[in-house]
Specification:
The two termini are about 25 Å apart. With about 375 residues, the protein is an alpha/beta fold. The protein has 12 helices and 17 strands. α5 runs parallel beside α6. The radius of gyration is 23 Å and the shape is elongated.
Length: about 375
């Protein structure tokens, strides 16, 4: 279906489909890796955004060390594609132990995460019972955003104690991890710099408290895209994680850490109808193509279900993506009333929608149609979903 296609082939492709601008993506990859290199830390990208080995290979080629995943299916898929240093950055639970064990026995260098004594005991017991040693980080809460243990909470030492073993069976305490997800709600450079320092200092404090109690803490892992791009120095940190930076999106543009021109992802859709009296243009790109994520609602500019552009990627400010049904997108024309929208955007014409949240929009699709950095021939990169 997609063999030997060029830019000129786009009108022939069935829509909606996910477009990826490789040149913009590569620029984003280089920007982040260059920053991490200058700060003197390892970089472990979060591949949940792309779920695509072709993308992750470019991140590693730029200098990344290992990858981060949010599901064990991601770990399995990427391991099958040759990736062998993977951090599963979601707290472990009993019904995932056998999957993790299978991956470990297959040869994957897998690091797991806990945030409770119960989870630490579970991993230790399972490791001993099966003759393996799980490598484990403890999640630290540095911003009250989600989960984790506060740096000064005695529970931190209890969890580390539960993970101690002879290094051959059970579970081995390896370090600490945090994610300043509240950075997504910030809007000024000053606030982002402050949050980046808060994330760093509190995670380093947790590591220091553990070391003072006699627990080696070799890994201090922090990160979110906004804080990674806002940190000014990272003493005490060993690695940074970030994911959405590879594509960026409208939420990140609203936070202020990228421009709209840095967004590498869009959904190509086709005009299928009009309601002239309402000023509506109907497309085949509803929320099944875009997702229901309305992350820009909380920001200065609400883009509805996404920012509308022409097929070349030029913004059409008079069109607002105001409503979405499962397979129908409703674009509201806010320009001059006398404009004949049916003539301006006839049936079969194409538009590109830039997403609010790249991770959520990507999750709606099975592949990327790639606008290549070099040459004119379109490429197709497979992505996967599910758990």
């Amino acid at each position: 279906m997609y063999a030997a296609l060029t830019w000129q082939s786009l009108p022939t492709l069935e829509t909606p489909l996910l477009l990826l601008d490789e040149q913009t993506m590569q620029r984003n990859i280089v920007r982040m890796q260059t920053r991490m290199n200058s700060l003197g830390v390892a970089f472990r990208p979060h591949v949940k955004t792309s779920k695509c080995p072709e993308v992750a290979r470019r991140q590693l080629a730029a200098g990344a060390t290992g990858i981060t995943v949010s599901t064990l299916k991601e770990a399995e898929e990427f391991f099958g594609q040759g990736f062998n240093d993977i951090l599963y950055a979601v707290a472990m639970v009993p019904n995932k132990l056998e999957h993790a064990l299978q991956l470990l026995r297959a040869g994957l260098h897998l690091t797991l995460l806990v945030e409770s004594v119960a989870a630490a005991e579970m991993l230790s017991q399972h490791g001993r019972a099966n003759g393996v040693c799980y490598e484990v980080l403890i999640e630290v809460d540095t911003d009250g955003h989600r989960s984790g243990i506060e740096p000064a909470d005695p529970l931190l030492l209890q969890v580390a104690s539960t993970l101690q073993n002879d290094g051959k069976q059970g579970a081995r305490f390896k370090g600490v991890l945090t994610h300043a997800g509240s950075s997504y709600d910030l809007r000024t450079p000053e606030a982002l710099v402050a949050m980046a320092e808060q994330e760093r200092s509190l995670c380093v404090l947790a590591a220091e408290n553990l070391r003072a109690a006699g627990y080696p803490c070799e890994v201090v892992s922090i990160g979110s895209t906004p804080t990674a791009l806002s940190a000014t120095s990272l003493p005490g940190v060993t690695e940074v994680r970030a994911g959405v930076y590879v594509f960026f999106d409208l939420v990140m543009a609203g936070v202020g850490i990228c421009s709209k021109e840095d967004i590498a992802l869009s959904v190509l859709c086709t005009v299928i109808g009009h309601r002239p009296a309402n000023g509506w243009i109907i497309t085949d790109g509803g929320w099944m193509a875009m997702s229901r994520d309305r992350g820009t609602q909380k920001q200065e500019h609400d883009f509805g279900y996404g920012m509308v552009c022409d097929v070349a990627g030029k913004v059409i400010p008079e069109l607002a993506f105001t409503q979405a049904n499962q397979e129908h997108g409703v674009l509201q024309w806010d320009g001059q009333a006398q404009t004949n929208i049916a003539q301006k955007f006839p049936i079969g014409s194409q538009l590109r929608i830039v997403p609010n949240h790249a991770c959520a929009t990507g999750a709606q699709h099975q592949r990327y149609v790639v606008l290549p950095a070099v040459g004119n021939e379109l490429q197709v990169w497979e992505r996967f979903g599910g758990w």
